Amino acid sequence: MTDITADQTADHLLGNPARDAEFGDFFALLKPRVMSLVIFTAAVGVLVAPVGVHPLIAFASILFIAIGAGASGALNMWWDADIDRVMKRTRSRPIPAGRITADEARQFGLWLSVIAVGMLGLTANFLAAGLLAFTIFFYVVVYSMWLKRATPQNIVIGGAAGAFPPMIGWAVATGGVSVESLLLFGLIFIWTPPHFWSLALFMNDDYANAGVPMLTVTHGKRATRRQIMFYTLLLAPLAVLISFTAVGGPVYFILSLALNALFLRGAWRLLRRNEAEAEADRYAAERGFFRLSLLYLFLHFAGLLLEAGLRAASIDWASWPQWV
Amino acid sequence: MGVIMAITKDHDLHKRRAKRNILLGLVLGSFVALVFGITMVKLSEGQMLEAFNHTARPSLVQELKK
């Protein structure tokens, strides 16, 4: 307890307490909200797979996938600290707020990545570990370092990083990749553009100030509304198609139909609105669509989980068609 | 010169560091427990844990017999 530096003591005497990084600051580097989605989708990947996994192995594997995703979040915050300082949404993150240095975040992210990938390889299998390593590489190098500041297609291609967790979960259970896991990947991949672009519609100033070439900044909001509609139209058949695979079933089918009808209606509403209308109600429809997108993904995966639960309870829809 | 005053009371900084260290200890302890649990599961599932040790391995000998 004798290593208080002179500066920290002076800061304290001047009424400006030294801000030593707390445990919670390191936890915040892992982007816990993103991590919760990763945990959920990876868990669904493990649980809907046709191969049983010991509960402890499943738990540990999902934990290491989540830590890997968190590590990539820390590396993203290290690389994007300059942008985060400018954007209102990210200004209070540990690095721009001065609670953690960029170097600490980089070290933390790198070591956690190594631990997560290594441990997933030992706990599950090396295909799953390889996919996790690729996901971290894709998010940090391809998305954060390369695409984010270079092209309005940043989140379209970068969305792949967020789409991998259910595929990794599936690989944990089966040791392989199959049509089902590719479709789960596709569901998140195609869902990402409408999700992020609806956020960009009402956070446009933030991205513009930070110089991030989001579609709303480079091509305008009208073009963004059209692109949201386009990706929502692509998403609907893909989401419904999953009903007719080994992981789908009639419960998921009905849920997916309802959710896609709502999502298409939401995208259509956004397409028909102009900026004057949007500003008049402070982007209420855009904010609503963004919230709906979160619910949309959550309920699709919850539907798959429900189908897996029904199969486990021997409630099998023998006459339900399986196309793939 | 002035008298060097000993720090007799815990600074708030110390309390925060102590909290951080305790939480880190808990995380590391949980990690050790998890690795132990994984090892137990792997062993109970009968996975191969033979290393090359300059002696005949029964599993290989049995395979050769076949």
Task: Describe the structure in your own words.
Chain A is mostly helical and 324 residues long. In chain A, 75% of the residues lie in helices and 0% in strands. Chain A has two domains: 22-177, Tetracycline Repressor, domain 2; 178-319. In chain A, helix 6 runs antiparallel to helix 7. Chain B is 62% helix and 0% strand. Chain B contains two helices and no strands. The interface between A and B is medium-sized, with 19 and 18 residues.
Number of strands of chain B: 0
Order of helices and strands of chain B: HH
Total beta strands of chain A:
0
Helical amount of chain A: over 70%
Shape designation of chain A: flat
Q: How would a crystallographer describe the biggest sheet of chain B?
A: none
Query: Low-confidence segments of chain B, ≥5 residues, pLDDT <50?
Result: none
Tally the helices of chain B: what do you get?
2
Report the total helices of chain A.
Answer: 15
Q: Which value, in Å, is the CA radius of gyration of chain B?
A: 26 Å
Short description:
By secondary structure, chain A is an all-alpha fold.
Provide the descriptors you would attach to this structure in a database record:
heterodimer, A: 324 residues, mainly alpha, Tetracycline Repressor, domain 2, 15 helices, disordered N terminus, B: 66 residues, 2 helices, 0% strand, elongated
Blueprint (SSEs and pairs):
The complex is a heterodimer of chains A (324) and B (66).
Chain A: H1 6-13, H2 23-29, H3 32-48, H4 55-79, H5 81-86, H6 102-123, H7 126-147, H8 154-174, H9 179-202, H10 204-210, H11 215-218, H12 220-241, H13 250-272, H14 275-280, H15 284-312
Helix pairs in contact in A: 3-4, 3-8, 3-15, 4-6, 4-7, 4-8, 6-7, 7-8, 8-9, 9-12, 9-15, 12-13, 13-15
Chain B: H1 12-44, H2 58-65
